[in-house]
Fold this protein.
Amino acid sequence: MVSRAHRIAIVARTVRLVPALLVCALVGTACGGGVHGTPGGSGVRDPYFPKAGNGGYDVTHYGLRLDYDPDAHHLTGTATLTARATEALSAFNLDLLGLAVGKVTVGGETARWNRAGQELTVRPGEDLDRHETFRVTVHYSGAPETVTDPDGSQEGWLRTTDGALALGEPTGSTAWFPGNHHPSDKASYDLTVTVPRGLRAVSNGELLSERTARGRTTFVWRTAEPMASYLATLAIGDFGISRSTARDGLPVYTAVDPAEKEGSRAVLARIPEVLRWAERRFGPYPFSSTGAIVDRAADVGYALETQSRPVFPGAPDMTLLVHELAHQWYGDSVSPESWRDMWLNEGFATYVEWLWQEDHGGPSAQATFDAVYSGDHFDTEEAGEAIWEFPPAEPPSAARISDPPVYWRGAMVLHKIRQVVGDEAFGDILRGWAAAHRHGNADTADFTAYVEEQAPGKDFDGIWEDWLYGEGKPERA
Ligand code: TRP
Ligand code: ZN
């Protein structure tokens, strides 16, 4: 079926091209193209989320001003995106789910727009040139939605006992700001949030200011390093704040729901220790601050590695803390090129858990690998079998991008590489991979090519074929 946005795009393309061709014919010049824009795509051809992201531009910065009233469940927002056109554009799309759009401007001039599902098509008064940097501002408001993922989990805008929590993996960020919602387009963020006095608003990066006037408090947050939109978060509610520093004065900012305070204290106090260990193993921590957000377990069903400040559903244990901090290197700094590449996030974060245990008096990664392979690691036979259901690099559908094979078999791929190259070269690969794609994106083919480059003369074909891309349980090597 052709979507409405797509039909509009086709019509617009035809209408635009005819006069251009006529003018070229009449004047008798060879019109070079590139002067006349065409609409950008409504997605970036993600294999699992075809409507996620948009074609024709790259966002470099999001400036978001939000005002939220939890009692009324009403959000008012102004989003100003700075972007660069990657082709000449007559129109471009943003992703935005629900909410009412008011005025839209491009370069300060009112722009026409229309909506179809989560696609907001913006038509500037004048075409944008290829490579032109432009600013688009969207005024919007309404009741932000909770999104149910293909796998049944809840993301987007979650209402909590005392406020709200915005979570965005894989597509929930569409529920609270318009943008290019695909991990391949990373940008810096400035977020200004106003909430009723007495509540706090906690986000990624650094808190620049906090000011109360007329019964409302405004918090200003900044994320200077590139961030995929699924890693943006906003927690509104009653939080106990703790500030400290890790190595070299790296700011640690934790926000904990009072109900989770006692249970969280000991584990969160170990954030600097985990980072010190991880920097030794994986290279420099990639962001300019760290911390955690702990909300009530009843309000959120899972943890998420939101950039610089992961979110936890209640007090985390050490393994979960290590997992989410590991993602800061693998997932947040080195981000997936598409949602097919999830094992580069989850397989790595799982393997980092094994390494942490190995370095802290627990079982070796080899012992963990063996127990996972045999099924002994799992409580039930079904859980042990589930990890063989599909190859980690090729989940069968969007509903399964965070299923057990992505985590466990993904981690096993890394261990198989370690067996081939040895501990030292493997350490170099983990550090080198984080450095090679720092603050960027990478896919599975980039990773296999990188490993092969780092270990000339070694043969990884069997690992790729059996462990990464192969169906079923591999023969033990
Ligand atoms: N990334 C989260 C973690 O492991 C888990 C998760 C939550 C997830 N939502 C998801 C993974 C959506 C893939 C897709 O810490
Ligand atoms: Zn994870």
In short: Residues 376 and 384 are 8 Å apart (CA to CA). The chain is about 30% helix and 30% strand.
